[in-house]
Amino acid sequence: MKTVHIQNSSSAPLSDKIANGKRAREMKPSPSPQQVNDRLLQLEEEIKRLQSELVVLRSQKLVEALLQADGPLPRENHTVIRTKAGLTVKGSRLTLYSVMDSIRENNSLKNVRDIYELTDEEMLDILDYIHLHKNEVEKEYQEVLESAERNRKYWEERNRELMATTYQQREVVRAKLQELRAQYHASDK
Fold first, then answer.
1. Are 129 and 87 in contact (CB under 8 A)?
2. Contact 180, 172 (CB under 8 A)
């Protein structure tokens, strides 16, 4: 291990210089209130300048990291969650599939947002999620449409007899009403 010796350029020992420095500081008069305020303003301006420089540097670093990243830009999504019903808007029963239906019916994004009473942030989160997970969402959406069609056919078949009976009853009631109207108008003459 090497030992480094520091030679003092003046003849006075280092401990004397330190003691003299302390005395010099002790003998300095304290600054006036105006000097303190001026120095505070100067330091605050320096802090603002450094903070703005820091923001620029952090932004540059983030942009560089994003340019090097492969794939879509990362964004935290606090709106879209998975439930038993599928992909839904957090805190509601609204599914992304309903939103997609509305968009595909040529409603404007503003109208869709207003129909479902979504905030701008929620709407952006939904659109981002759909865009970033396009294949997965599209596949699930098709499954939901197929399931809805199967459900509709099932209930249509199941209720076919009931509907036929209902239609027959409706025709009987209409005939009876026409007969009563005819009797009413005949009695007026």
1. yes
2. no
pTM of the model: 0.46
* Positions of E strands within the chain: 80-83, 86-89
Domain ranges of the chain: 41-70, 80-132
- Angle at 98 (CA atoms; ends 92, 100), nearest 5 degrees: 125
The number of residues making up the chain comes to 189
Q: Kindly give, in sequence order, each residue whose CB lies less than 8 Å from that of residue 39, ignoring residues fewer than 6 positions away.
A: 31
Per-residue pLDDT of the chain (189 residues; tens, 9 = 90+): 555 454 544 555 656 666 666 665 566 778 899 999 999 999 999 998 988 888 778 777 777 776 676 665 556 788 898 888 888 999 999 999 999 999 889 888 899 999 999 998 889 889 888 888 889 999 998 998 899 899 999 998 888 888 878 888 888 889 999 999 988 888 776
Quote the tokens at residue 165. 């009976």
